[in-house]
Input
Amino acid sequence: MKKNQNKETKDANRSKALVYVESIYEQRLAKWPVEYEEMMIPTRYGLTHVVVSGAQEAPALVLIHAMGIGSTMWLPNIASLSENHRVYAVDTIGDLNKSLLTSDEYFPKKGADYSLWLTDLFDALGVDQAGIIGASMGGWIAMNHALYAPERVSKVALLGPMGIRSNVVNVSTRLTSILLNPSEKNKHSLISWALGENPIVQKDYAEYMYYAVECPGKMGFPSNLPDEDLKKLKAPVLLFLGGEDRPIGKPEPVAKKAKKYLSAIEVVILPGVGHLINIEAPEEVNKGLLHFFDN
Output
């Protein structure tokens, strides 16, 4: 009986969290500064929600958000990016957003799985090749797509990405502690650690991430790519690193490793910036992204 009561409580909390997340998502999407269209695209894992902006004939850019944040994290960037590009802001399947898994038992777990998911998405959208911008876990997904489907990826921009030399053990330990002991103290500790101290980030994303922690998604966990896989990445890469990015760690060792193994790499380190680089330093990021993708 107690086991059934615990399950009922968890299911009720999950349903409540989903309602709150959808409400927050819609409030943020209402602030989207340019015209957009929402699409639900069928893939092997389920329906993927995409927010599309920019001229249909313009070169394609695919944006992949950080874990537990949703594609509305690109609010500070979409106006600049969509001026000369057809921009697809994708809700990662299995994360807490508007994408819908067909089954909670069938979701991408490894980098190759996420590449297959993106291949389905590209095919359905009619996108032969695109530039990809990925933040945090989204950067790991972007690198894997460039690795497993190189002909579909023209350039890759990474913002504080998991997968090169990130604090995988620290992130895993903190997430595990939440699963074992989902106390309010542990939840707020994880959110504060991940988001950093920037008041704009805390104001706009702490609540969303709280409910993402309350209602964890069905996703693979990003690991650092083996050196030999990094060497295989031939697409030009623009790497943004924050000087105060806790999930990634000190930027200098990450930059050093990226330059050692990635054949075409440009690195930008932003001192004093935390994990959500595009939100904390939108002007620098937008300028760098436009120069990278337009040249």
